[in-house]
Write a structure and sequence with these properties.
Radius of gyration of chain A: 21 Å
Largest interface: A-B, 85 and 86 residues
Number of strands of chain A: 18
Oligomer: homotetramer
Structural class of chain A: alpha+beta
Chain lengths: ~350, ~350, ~350, ~350
């Protein structure tokens, strides 16, 4: 239910307005070096913020876009187990086989080393303002999971979505970033980028397109493309666990994702076999063929906008439209989905190694 | 690798030109009645054939289309375990709790009853003509998995694709049809239909569109839409095992499938949140909301056509284009994928019951 | 439920009096050579028979014991998928990488080669004599699973036990023998032997001890010891999936097994730490330490004896003792459990490779 | 590796001398009330301490025994997610379906309510005294996992055992206590008790027996018996996932456990079938038969004693005996294993519900 993968097993936990969110990543081999800078950077991408108030949406072409939403406090990862800082290690280990050499230039500040045991981490929830959500106490928002949660569990945390909140994806980003570093060590790289916002396909115009929807109190969807290079020939299984099936499973589990395609995708339907036969998308019969794997996924507009939420229904069963209040809103969640797409891709791929 | 699901566990086996293909379906409760007629009908849909030489591609609107490929011998299912014929049962059971009454009108001919034990079945491979594949002995076909199989396993069955052959989907159809009958007993129905062939969206013109590509020695892709009704509110899990993620995993595991979308899908990217906020596609936050679940998937054109296979490469490492011979070819595999989409949807859904 | 393991996934199926029993073994690498002679020999050990009417119970010291039960027809394995005969292979493969050389001296008669795809096999049920079980139609046998099966499934196959029959273990022996050959290729050997029958611990007296109980219309239990050599240091996981926990799970799943112990076992309870501290049983902290792993398991006497079955109860709910009829009976099932212990040990170990 | 179960999935993490140990329990239904008093009590049983400096070893007959080891600070559980305090709930939920009535008399102090989301908790490691372990830096202790850990992972935390430390079982006790409360709500109770210490079987003499070994600088093993009542008929699966196999797997994963038996166990080997045929141990054919399930397990003496550790080896590869220093030692770990046996039994059983 909240566990992903069977080789690198990632367990995600935490409510958006509880004490903390976090995760446990089990199966990571001992001796992997983890850069804390990279994890911090990925969390900032997901939070829609970097130091200079803008952030990378296109990690291949290094296009930048101004963040649509400022975060007041950065997410800080607290490590509970499974790692030790590099400086601590030299004291700790008695093994003669020292795999971290002075030449590698690591300092305790910069990095962690995995122990081969489960890596547990948490991110405390600061910045919780329950009063912002007071109006939701008796309201089911259209396009949200408010109602189905209450129907499924008999209880609903109305203060921000609970497990359905996109905040949960921060834990995925941390775990995925560890996976990405293992993949990088094996020569595999993952690059996702936003390639479309609404009808706009020019990245340089994404910021203004989003800003226009935001001013209008509305929101818009986007398409993210992801390219995996260096993936070994033979990765994937021929029948059920095809590489594309595992990627689709991972990506479709991201909030607001409505579709997944690879290679010729949906657009290829109008092309005859003789024209597109040679386009594999990097996968043949479920198995990586050695060329880059390319897939795309689409994210719907957020429903939490002043314009969209007009027609909420009452959770008390009373008729009539509910009062709606929306503060800051994210006009294009696809922007912040980019690092999450990379994270889930990485978590899907490490299962095959 | 060849096992699908963890509640109803389906194991698929068999090479396309070995002794048999088949499967084991474990986890099916005791006492489910299985109609053999339905299984036969589904296998004929998959084989592209019915008694009157045409078959149903659109199970909702009952549109018909002439089969593009005739099968010489029907697939016959041999049941090895887990079921007994209805007539046999009355002799076999000593339980006072008899759930099959004479009034229910079942005969040994018509049906089987499950025992709660693993259901194993095989379909013998008749009609194997190795000489048809002789030319493939030293050839990797473009768009096929020939080369990656040899790279992954160090061996390749060149006589028809082995596990990569679409023949494997016959076992999925048998297992899926059992799942469908359990779902039907719970009020859940699954209807897939072909909604697009190439650029054509009028079902009445699909047959001639496909025939035109066939005459041209070419092939074309298609889009299948699937509608699930009666699915209980609350089906699905909120984080990784979202209903859409499990469906995408199941569907993307079908040969030649290049994309999956639900609800507003890729097309919704140009619509603002205020316009499409109310379209859930039957799923909110990963959980069924009680409305019909609608998804679409796209199938690429088969690469095994006279026109498409011109540029094969040699598996012997010699340069130059290989001799190509294609006999009967399936100009639009999306047609025969329709019952497989239903089968995999059913297998995905029973895991949640 | 009927699936064992997650790397080498073994699915077992078949009722003792249905069409066939069998299994599917998924995850076996391509290119493993399987000796059919070894499989035949193992099945004969399990069936309590070899060519010279006696069979090996102690595979280390090669002690022999006369079989307490003759089998009229040998179990014949029919291979459905995942393998081809060695002679067939040279025709079949087009790969230049030929791993079977003429020098290896294999003939089509002697062996099979795995393809890397699921290996499916069946053993047809011959020799079914339903009339032998007629008296069981309305009887629950003491010490058997007759009653709980009917309570759990609402139906019971009274003709020989269905899935509860020890006949199911023949499929385990086939799959385990494949696993054993993979282990042997890695230098790991598994040797189980009967070390106690009743109070008797001298193997040379086991046959007469068993014969005495048989004459008396009674039965007796036995203890099997298993020694694994060559297991790599580091095999096993430190917390839940300790090597001893996985072995216990595998062994305790064998019919009639009532206990598992390793190293100092139950007998060690009276010894102080200072005396037995050095005895690891081959495992430290759940992880193989490089010394031979030694475990023991105990099998209860069969309850199907003239003397033991006196007090059966009626499945019709009527009071009174039921008529009891027992033909040939197996006075010590521990004898035939020996190859099953080896098979389950092998299946448990291959999961760690 | 560090994940137990597939319905109630328990992930354990934490090194004995890291920041914290803890766990995540996924799959627990919403609305379960958890008594924090019970969890505290179980943790104190495991720590070998209660308020009055003695504790229950026999939960059925309420026999007491003086704790052999005092804990300076109690283990405090910090809840991170998946639960809320009862008083908080009334504010939080907007559901009309209130399942906690005023009559149930719960206060925020006393209890927690589950949300249906993953329950994450940690126990911070206080009381770490690395200097106590300084002598272990270059020493492999006989009977410990020191050496195999270093061989398996290439690194070893010599300050207390890391994941091999019995401290990890505290997380099991917390998770198991939640499982136990779900089981109790369904009428299932689990009672483990120490039934043998060395050769002694009179519980009233256990304390003095242990004290004698302690004075002697030595240690002794013990046998724990566990009785499960109220388990529904039909629990368990007939082939691989037999109830006894799942229990054995759970119990054998506990540190220092060397054997598992149920029903007639090893002792039954000398009894003829006619004498013990009626003793099921609560399980027939792998399935609970409605009578109490009774099993026993044996724990070896701790190897960490002044007398036992004389012959340690050097981890530096130098020859000669290492200096040995043992402070407080636990002369009979079987005492503290009792609540861990209950916890693992509970975690095994909830998988079947």
């Amino acid at each position: 239910m909240n566990v992903f993968g069977d080789k690198w097993t990632f367990t995600s936990f935490g409510e958006s307005h509880g004490a903390a969110i976090g995760g446990v990543l089990d199966g990571v081999p001992a001796g992997l070096h983890i850069s804390m800078d990279l994890i911090r950077e990925e969390l900032e991408r997901r939070a829609g913020k970097t130091e200079n108030k803008s952030y990378i949406v296109d990690s291949v072409n290094r296009k930048y876009i101004v963040s649509p939403r400022a975060l007041r406090e950065p997410d800080e990862v607290e490590w509970l187990s499974g790692v030790m800082s590099v400086s601590e290690r030299s004291e700790r280990s008695v093994s003669e086989t020292v795999w971290v050499t002075p030449e590698s230039g690591l300092s305790g500040e910069a990095g962690l080393i995995t122990l081969g045991t489960p890596i547990a981490f948490i991110i405390r929830n600061k910045d919780a303002r329950p009063e912002d959500y007071e109006w939701l106490k008796h309201t089911y928002r259209t396009g949200h999971a408010d109602k189905v949660y209450e129907q499924k569990y008999g209880i609903r945390d109305w203060r921000g979505g609970g497990r359905a909140s996109a905040r949960e994806t921060a834990a995925r980003v941390v775990a995925g970033c560890i996976a990405k570093q293992e993949l990088a060590a094996k020569g595999i790289s993952i690059h996702a980028s936003l390639i479309q916002v609404g009808a706009e396909t020019d990245p340089d115009k994404f910021a203004e397109t989003i800003a226009a929807y935001k001013r209008d109190g509305d929101s818009i969807g986007g398409i993210v493309e992801c390219i995996i290079t260096g993936i070994p020939v033979g990765t994937g299984e021929p029948v059920f666990n095809k590489l594309q099936a595992e990627l689709a499973f991972a990506i479709m589990s991201i909030n607001a994702c409505k579709g997944f395609e690879y290679g010729t995708g949906f657009g290829g339907v109008t092309q005859p076999g003789s024209a597109i036969n040679h386009i594999s998308g990097g996968i043949a019969g479920g198995i990586a063929d050695g060329t880059p794997v390319t897939f795309r996924c689409v994210f719907k507009p957020t429903p939490s906008t002043p314009k969209a939420l007009v027609h909420c229904t009452s959770s008390l069963g009373t008729s009539g439209v509910q009062p709606v209040k929306v503060g800051r809103h994210d006009a294009c969640v696809a922007v912040r989905a980019v690092p999450v797409v990379e994270a889930m891709t990485a978590l899907a791929l490490v299962q095959f190694l």
